[in-house]
C-alpha cells in the first residue's frame, strides 16, 4: 500500500532552539523524512535560530551530522540529503536580546505559510512572541508551535496562555503533545468512530475497567535537574496520559475537526473526579546492578519526587459512571511499552456446562513498540473432549497487516509539524484543555506535598512498587503485564 501524500503549500519554518537536542534528534530528522517522501514542497525553507554563533554552512553541517546520527536508514540517501540541506539557513538570535531580529525579518517571507517553532525553555516563549511582533516578523497568518511543559501548575499555565494570547490568536497557537501524533493514537479514534462494532459497547454497561500504561526503561540521568522539579505527574500524567484518557473516554465528536474533538476532550477532563489519596501510588526507583537510584540520578539525596505513579480515577458522567480508569507510568520499568486496555465485563451467564473460567473480552491498543491492537476472544479449544473454552488474541500488528515495507509510519513529530503547515489544530491541545488538566492535577500534587508523602521504592527493571499492584488487587483486578 502506498501512503497517500496530502500536499501542502510552500512554507518558512523558523525553529527557535534549532541547535538543541529536540531539534537535532526529532524535528530536523523528521522534516528530512517528509522532504524525502515528497511532502515538503519546493521553495520551502527551514531557518534555525539560537544564540550559538554559526553561519548557514555551519548549521547545515550540524544538521547533516544530526540526521546521520538520528535519521535512521533514510539518512543514507546522500543525494536527497544534499538537496534537503539547501533548504536550511540559520540566524544567530538571543530570545532576550536585540541582535539578529532584523536579519530574521528579512529572511522570513510574507507570502508563504509562516510557522515559528518555540523549541526552547518555556521561560523564553514570552520574549519570542513579543519580539516576533515588535520586529514585524509575525502576522495574523503566522503559526507558533510550543513545546511541553506548558506550565507547572494552573497558575503558570494561565500566565503562559495570557502571554501568548497578547500576541497570537488561539487559532495560531499549536501546543504540541507528541503522543497525539502517534499513529495508533489516531487509530484509536478510527477504531471507535469508524466501526459499528465497538461504540455500542463503549460504556459502563459493558466495560469493566480501562487501563492506561506508559512504561519506560530509561532513567532520569542527564535530565535529573529538570525532572526532579517535575516528577511523573507533571511530566507524563497531566499531558500524555490525560490526552489518551480523553480520546478513549470522549463522546463522539460531530466531525473530525479541531474544535469538535477538543470540545469533547475538554468535557472529559472537566468530568474527572478528584482522586482519593488512597488511590494514588507514587514510587521512586532504587539502585540496581545496572544503574543508580533515582536520587543519585537526580543528584538530590533527599528528593521526594516520584519517578512512578499509578492511580485510579473516575469520570463522572452517564457513560462512565462506576468504571474505574487505572493510569500508570514510570521510569526504569521492566520494558518500554505503552498500552491502553479496555477490559469488558464478564459474561452474565455461561451456557457451557463445566466451564468455570472467567472469560472476558479484552481490547488492547499498543502505542509502542509494535503499534497495533489485539482483541481477546473466547473460542472452543480445538479437538475432542467437549466444549472446553479458551481465550485467544485476534492480533493485528499494523506493520504485519499493512506491510511495513510499503507504509511509511511517520514519526509523531513530523506528522504534527505537517499538520501545523496545513493549519490543522485537531491533534494539538487548546489553551482551555491544558488549564483544565492542571485544575485537576494541582490539588493532587498539593495534597501529597502537604502530607510530605514519601514515594515507595521499587526495583529498577520491575513493574513498579508493590502498592501499585495492590491498588488493583484490592478491586479484584490486575494490571496487564508490562512487556516489550
Ligand atoms: P536544549 O537541548 O537545552 O536546547 C535548547 C535550545 O534553546 C538550544 O538550541 C539553545 O541554543 C537555545 N537557546 C537557549 N537559550 C536561548 C536564548 N536565550 N535565545 C535563543 N535560543 C536559546 O533543549 P531541548 O531538549 O532541545 O528542549 C527544547 C524544548 O523542548 C524545551 O521546552 C523542552 O522542555 C521541550 N522538549 C524537549 C524534548 C526532548 O526530547 N529534548 C521532549 C519534549 C519537550 P543556544 O545555547 O545556542 O542558544
Automatic annotation (TrEMBL):
Ranges where the Glucose-6-phosphate dehydrogenase C-terminal domain occurs: 189-480
Residue sites binding NADP(+) per the record: 17-24, 51, 148
Catalytic activity: D-glucose 6-phosphate + NADP(+) = 6-phospho-D-glucono-1,5-lactone + NADPH + H(+)
Keyword flag Hydrolase: no
Annotated Pfam families: G6PD_C (PF02781), G6PD_N (PF00479)
Single biological process term from Gene Ontology: pentose-phosphate shunt, oxidative branch
InterPro entries linked to this entry: G6P_DH, G6P_DH_AS, G6P_DH_C, G6P_DH_NAD-bd, NAD(P)-bd_dom_sf
Sequence ranges assigned to domain Glucose-6-phosphate dehydrogenase NAD-binding in this UniProt record: 14-187
Keywords attached to this entry: Carbohydrate metabolism, Glucose metabolism, NADP, Oxidoreductase
Catalytic residue positions: 240
GO CC terms of this entry: cytosol
Keyword NADP: yes
EC numbers, comma separated: 1.1.1.49
SUPFAM superfamilies: Glyceraldehyde-3-phosphate dehydrogenase-like, C-terminal domain, NAD(P)-binding Rossmann-fold domains
Record-listed substrate binding positions: 178, 182, 216, 235, 331
Molecular function (Gene Ontology), one example: NADP binding
Gene3D superfamilies in the cross-refs: Dihydrodipicolinate Reductase, domain 2, NAD(P)-binding Rossmann-like Domain
Enzyme class, broadest EC rank: oxidoreductase
Associated pathway: Carbohydrate degradation; pentose phosphate pathway; D-ribulose 5-phosphate from D-glucose 6-phosphate (oxidative stage): step 1/3
Family: Belongs to the glucose-6-phosphate dehydrogenase family.
Functional note: Catalyzes the oxidation of glucose 6-phosphate to 6-phosphogluconolactone.
Annotated protein name in UniProt: Glucose-6-phosphate 1-dehydrogenase
UniProt organism field: Yoonia rhodophyticola
Lineage: Bacteria, Pseudomonadati, Pseudomonadota, Alphaproteobacteria, Rhodobacterales
